[in-house]
Specification:
The complex is a heterodimer of chains A (188) and B (334).
Chain A: H1 9-18, H2 21-30, H3 32-41, H4 46-66, H5 75-93, H6 102-128, H7 131-142, H8 147-153, H9 159-180, H10 183-187
Helix pairs in contact in A: 1-2, 3-4, 3-5, 4-5, 7-9, 8-9
Chain B: H1 2-15, H2 21-33, H3 35-65, H4 75-114, H5 128-148, H6 151-162, H7 171-186, H8 189-201, H9 203-215, E1 217-219, E2 224-225, H10 232-252, E3 261-265, E4 273-277, E5 280-284, E6 288-294, E7 297-302, E8 307-310, E9 313-318, E10 320-321, H11 325-333
Helix pairs in contact in B: 2-3, 4-5, 5-9, 6-7, 8-9
Classes of the chains: A mainly alpha (188), B alpha+beta (334).
Amino acid sequence: MFGVKKYNDLELIQEIKKGNKAALSQLYNDNYNAARGHILKNSGTQDDVDDVLQDAVIVIWEKIKNGNLILEAKLSTFLFAIVRNQWLKKLNKAGKVDRMNDWQTEKLSETRNFQDMDLKKVKDMVMELGDACRQVLSMFYFEEMDMESIAKRLNYANSDTVKAKKYQCFKKLQENFLARYKKSDFLS
Amino acid sequence: MKENQDQIGLFDDYLLNRMTSGERFAFEEKLDSDNDLKIEFNTHALLVSAIKESGKDELKAHLKANFKKPATLVVSKWIYASAAVILLFGCLYFINNSQRLDISQEKTNPEAIAEPVKPDTIIPENKEEIVLNENKEKANAIMEEVEASPAPIMMDDRADNDMPMANNSPADGKMTVNKEEMRSEEFSPDVFSDRKTYDTTLAVNNIYSATVFTNSQYSLNKDVVKKPGEKQLEEKAKPSSVERKKSKSDVDDNNNPDKYKVEEWESPVNFKGYNFTDGTIKIFSIKLDHIVEYNLNLYLKSKEGSWYLINQTVKFLPLNEVTDQTIKTILENK
């Protein structure tokens, strides 16, 4: 708590861009009280607070990563806006908000089918991969790091090594997936 | 395998937005026309989504694991709580202590009276406010005792008898004169008023000085006035030395009837010096051993054994120590 470097907004964005998880933690911790206050006041639970704030931080992170973040206010204000929207969405999803219109309902249920049921199973397969594979795949697809950065971060000889490793790991996941499911099970 | 790797690369580029709009358009066209490719791509997209989701889960786990409740939420409550407790105890301690101080002050005062103010004792500064009034009373009491006490004066009388001028007046008369002199010079309202001016600034020292004043007063040719309550040993030692010295000076200065009073004063600022006016030598921060006249100059020897030249001066001057060895030897042998 004391003695840990505190980043200002600009530094935070820079550090998040670099993939510094401590910066994300700061964003999360600093805005926890505000998010908690809002969600608990609006019929949420402690678990909801954690989920929604985590999602909101990830949204920010993705925006920063993709260069889509245009900051017109403080980062905390922006994050709080996301928290509010996300929580509203969650309430809608759970049917807690009555004034949800039909169009929204339709759209939500449409996307849910694929994601909620199947994705979870595939996610488990990812988790079954070894740490090394999971790390490379996560860095490449989730963090969207380039091969050279991954090589540096994971101490690989060069980007080609990472490329080979990534291919190898992805193939493994694909094989595991095809061994258990038919493509048509998911994609019909 | 190479083909497969290329295809994965193509899918990745599409999914990770690494294509130009032209490439993107061409790729989508191809997907629409090739059903197998579409199935391949959808599988790939599902796996990538799963990887992304697990990445998110890991990040969430990291956020949760590294979550520390902000200081303002809980810690500050503890800080406020402990501050309040400390403040409360602080207040209690203060109140308790100040009450104790009142009692201790009451206790201190009688002690201050009981403890004699010795000439060679420096009164601690912190006692000054407390003992001020008590010491005034004490000083007055001592002065009264000095006036009333016959013992030192009798001793003086014996000394007077040796003097030529003592023959002019009878012993009793001398005694009266001495007492009157003491009253008029040392305990006159003037002297007190003088002291009062000191009272306003240097209360402790002044009271101390007033005490010393009466106790350590010497006349070169005659009187030794000792504080009646002083230690017996000291009383025996001091008069005899002064008497001896006095008889010597009588031999040298038979025609000199001058009497010098020496007052030992304690300086609050550690001033080491003297003044000499109207036959009274006030010495600061040193103790008198004896006085000798030589070559029409007055020399004073301190208890430490140093000789000082004393000139007539209304101003307080720093002590002028005799360094000349021959003069010292002469003075020692006088």
